[in-house]
Specification:
By secondary structure, the chain is an alpha/beta fold. It has helices at 19-30, 42-55, 69-81, 105-133, 154-173, 192-207, 212-228, 233-245, 257-268, 271-282; strands spanning 10-13, 34-39, 59-63, 87-90, 137-141, 181-185, 252-254. Strands 3-2-1-4-5-6-7 form a seven-stranded parallel beta sheet, with helices on both faces.
């Protein structure tokens, strides 16, 4: 029996007020899943709530900060009291874009607090419920950066590599209890996280310094890639829906053609060749 069978299924989605999370929340609600859409922004939560009311969707919004134990416990208890959690989608994330040397230790902690410890916090809160029922499914929104690391992406990519390792461990540990753990690995998709990343990196870009030219080339390259991307948040949401409804889901699902190109390049190229490809792409040359 698949997740889509039997009674109406309940899904908790973090980071559900924008981008991939919002697209998935609306897709699932329109397919009559009971959706609990969680996020931090009161304004965005209100917008999503109004949309759900207008369409008479089975969607409820929840204020949730994955960096807070109290906030996570309140949100999870609310959903459990409403009947349980069949699917947890860990989608909340931020991106600190800057050179490793430029980012402060507070930046590094903030990066991991949301992208890794936030995921760990809410997953640990939900797991006892799923494990006792011997039922459930957990989706982890990773990234192309979970496979490879571009310059200026050291913090973000490190957090996604950590998320991949966490998911790999959970997938084995939860197998006896019938709880699949699934990695979703998008490439470039235009969402709010890109704009937020540009804002977070602004102080480092504006101050100049030894990495100024790298920042310029990086954002020029990324903006061009995003402009060419034909994959939408809704496309990604359909991949996530498939992973939710599959009787035997795969451990990971790639999204976008770039993801598949990078995946196979990692298999075929040496580390030195891959580094050379990145250096060419971002115009990185040795200074004399």
């Amino acid at each position: 029996m698949t997740i889509a069978d039997s009674k109406q299924k309940s899904v908790l989605i973090t980071g559900a007020t924008d981008g991939l999370g919002k697209a998935l929340a609306l897709l699932l609600a329109r397919r009559r899943y009971r959706v609990f859409a969680a996020g931090r922004s009161p304004e965005k939560l209100a917008e999503l709530d109004a949309l759900a009311r207008a369409e008479k969707l089975p969607l409820e919004t929840i204020a949730l900060d994955v960096c807070s134990d109290d906030s996570v416990n309140r949100a999870v208890n609310r959903v459990l009291s409403a009947g349980g959690i069949d699917v947890l989608v860990n989608n909340a994330g931020v991106n600190y874009t800057a050179a490793v040397e430029d980012l402060t230790m507070d930046d590094w902690r903030a990066q991991f607090e949301t992208n890794f410890f936030g995921v760990l916090r809410i997953t640990r809160a939900v797991l006892p419920h799923m494990r006792e029922r011997r039922s459930g499914r957990i989706l982890m929104t990773s990234s192309l950066s979970g496979l490879v690391t571009a310059p200026t992406q050291g913090a973000y990519s490190s957090s996604k590599h950590a998320l991949e390792a966490l998911s790999n461990a959970l997938r084995l540990e939860l197998y006896p209890f019938g709880i699949p753990v699934i990695l979703i690995e998008p490439g470039y998709i235009v969402t709010g996280i890109g704009k937020a990343a540009a804002e977070l990196s602004r102080p480092y870009v504006q101050k100049g310094g030894p990495y100024a030219s790298l920042y310029s080339r990086f954002f020029t390259n990324v903006n061009a890639a995003r402009a060419k991307s034909k994959t939408t948040p809704e496309d990604c949401a359909r991949v996530m829906l498939h992973s939710i409804e599959a009787a035997h889901p795969k451990p990971r699902y790639g999204v976008t053609s770039l993801f598949h190109f990078v995946k196979w390049s990692k298999w075929l190229l040496t580390d030195s060749a891959f580094d050379a490809m990145f250096r060419r792409r971002f115009g990185i040359v040795r200074e004399e």
